[in-house]
Write a structure and sequence with these properties.
Two copies of one chain form a homodimer. With 423 residues, chain A is an alpha/beta fold. Chain A has 13 helices and 16 strands. The longest helix of chain A has 22 residues.
Chain lengths: 423, 423
């Protein structure tokens, strides 16, 4: 809820890190004087073109008594963390889009903010321009949130969308994406699901009001997805997407990032290129979806500036007179289910001898471990080797793993090529 | 941004109108004591089953000095308006889901709230559980909003989705919808687009921070859509949806509700049944979409209780010490473009003699008025009458109307059966 504020006061801020997001923030604020916010100084080691005074020394911002809000858009944990902690200690509010910092150290930063009576806001850390965190916290907090899941990494979604549309292999598409600037020279953080896992930890913490440790997030990337899987999935009505999934379970929660088969009729299936989309299921609100551009200076600056302006609004209206500041509850710990306990439907692709009775043997090995097949399909045969695609009904992952171990021991089975969960 | 508040204080509220939404609100609040809100009394003329004391007399709530927030979930303008104004005058905050009241009298209610230093919040009036208004106001206000459009009426979306899926005619589907409780016995408010037009006026006012008069909203309903139009639209890759459209134009804005052809590849095309979805285009945020259940006690109560809890939070933290209360800016007036000035692409279905040269004659009549055809298609012929479907390129509506007048004068043209805009 926006509060009344005097348009005459001007709240001074400093920006640490003037890359794509930081400089977009400086530009948006400068273009909108009616927000009553002034970028007193920006800090970057590079020479950058921004409409504010510049320094190389972060401490000039942190130690400036006029600056009330520090925007941290440097990224990474070090040295961002020490600057943010110092700013909080100096009684400054902090707005950051740094998902790694928040995912790894949310509890510590929150505790510091609480101690010093200030806010730490981080809408820009998840979903770019989609106001998902503030919506969960401000507009959906009267609900019991049961599930939050979606596409939260644009780079992998671009790659998977392109592989799907053009039937190309992962390596070729990754190289194209790097050329076009959609993937980093070192693409590990995106491809291997680290970026999405940071966002999953943050989404879980905000959705459940709990301290979900990033180290507890189960993570798989998209590097093992091949064109063959995408083609087989498509035949049976699915696309493959990298999902972040957060669910309320039995006294525990379930937080994970992995590629999954998504039915073509599900709205997430049509989220392509660099778009993000996040589903929320709660009670009494039912089902919601939020869709938008998940990265980039424009969208992310909308989120960062909105956080800055919200704090500026509260400062202007409450200045010294009340205790509105400090959004920070102590977050209770929560148990995260190990991936082995989680139930899923699965897609399994394997290579086996093209011989009479092979399918029967595999089916029996599954049945012995109480894994029941939804569909078994012998695909193409190359020489004496047949590709077999199996879909199995919902089963705990540990049972599936046991069944796959038994299947692997069958002399006719040459290789289990891929195993993917189905949403 | 949620503010810190003492969990011990209990804010007392009263609920006027305990229908589907009002009683869901009472139940959600009673189930969530940690919100620190208490329903002191509800008012309804009927006997209803709610977990709070009941009265038939609204003035008992309005005159109760302990009650700080009035929830108005009666619907309709009279007598809701006099109760809301009296509550504001008595210094009570008001939360309402009454779209007709807000659409018709927003400026007057806002002025009264400003005068008495209180809030009027109405998230529940648009999009049910989708927090679209608070998101526009709290999280996207740093953007220049250029466009807001979407599906905001569940009844008409149910009917159109059903006509599309089953090829049935409007009357048959309406009767089914009435039997199932998806349409009212008197369906006029939904079918003729009144409900959507209230929401369009509210969306425009909030998106543009302006006083958009409901009377200026252009409105067409879905009663003229026949199965034939849906089938022809489908052939060329479109579905028909009732849309609310709000756009920033040249010093004016464009606010309208009408059925429109939507490309099957547009995410709105897959929004079916009673779901709502609202697109927002702004700068720097880019494109966003918000999707969810647009009506019903559960979703709408999420919105209403969230508004109540936001106000309760501010009361608890600021009580008498600051001027946070009163969200109310004076809304500047804004000019609304007449529909005749607005440019669209169009779908036109007509009946003409099945005779040589007919298409050429029609094409010439269009060209004379500078309306250019994107596609002309002679569909089936019944006896001597042919059905012709024409798509025209973007053109101002007044030019199209002039062209259609000329076409109508052609002796070979028997009837212009339908004209629909294309999104």
């Amino acid at each position: 809820m926006k509060t009344n504020r005097s348009p005459h006061s001007s709240i001074k801020i400093g920006i640490l890190g003037l890359g794509t997001v930081g400089s977009a923030v400086a530009k948006v604020i400068t273009k909108r004087p009616e927000l009553g916010i002034k970028v007193k100084m920006g800090c970057d080691l590079r020479r950058v073109n921004v409409p504010c005074p510049l320094t190389h020394d972060p401490w000039r911002l942190i130690n400036d008594p006029e600056i009330q809000i520090i925007v941290e858009t440097m990224g990474g944990v070090n040295p961002a963390k020490q600057y943010v902690l110092a700013a909080l200690k100096a009684g400054k509010h902090v707005v950051t889009s740094n998902k790694e910092l928040i995912a790894r150290h949310m509890a510590e930063l929150m505790a510091a903010a609480k101690r010093h009576g200030v806010f730490v806001l981080f809408e820009g850390a998840v979903g770019g321009g989609i106001p998902i965190l503030n919506t969960l916290r401000d507009n959906l907090f009267v609900n019991r949130i049961d599930e939050v899941y979606g596409i939260v990494n644009g780079t992998t979604n671009y790659i998977l969308s392109k592989m799907t549309a053009e039937g190309k292999e992962f390596d070729a598409v990754l190289k194209e994406a790097q050329k076009l600037g959609y993937a980093e020279a070192n693409p590990k953080a995106d491809i291997e699901g680290y970026d999405a896992s940071y966002k999953a930890a943050i989404l879980a913490s905000v959705a459940f009001g709990a301290n979900v440790k990033w180290a507890d997030v189960y993570r798989e990337g998209i590097e093992k997805i091949v064109a063959e899987d995408i083609a087989y999935a498509s035949e049976i009505g699915y696309v493959i997407k990298l999902l972040a999934i957060v669910k309320r379970g039995n006294g525990k929660i379930d937080v994970r990032v992995h590629p999954a088969l998504v039915s073509k009729s599900h709205p997430l299936a049509n989220v392509t290129a660099n778009f993000n989309a996040i589903y929320v299921k709660g009670s009494p609100v039912g089902e919601l979806m939020f869709y938008g551009q998940g990265a980039g200076g424009g969208p992310t600056s909308s989120a960062v500036v909105s956080d800055v302006a919200s704090i500026a609004g509260l400062i202007s209206c409450c200045e010294e007179t009340c205790q509105c500041s400090g959004n920070v509850r102590s977050l209770p710990s929560v148990k995260v289910s190990p991936i082995t306990e989680i139930e899923n439907r699965y897609y399994i692709r394997m290579e086996a001898a093209d011989r009479h009775g092979v399918l029967a043997g595999i089916a029996k090995a599954f049945a012995d471990k109480k894994v029941s097949n939804a569909a078994v399909n012998q695909k193409e045969t190359r020489g004496s080797t047949a590709t077999i695609v199996i879909l199995v009904h919902k089963v705990a992952e540990k049972n599936l793993v046991a069944a796959l171990r038994a299947v692997k021991r069958l002399s006719v089975v040459r290789k289990i090529s891929n195993v993917l969960r189905i949403l």
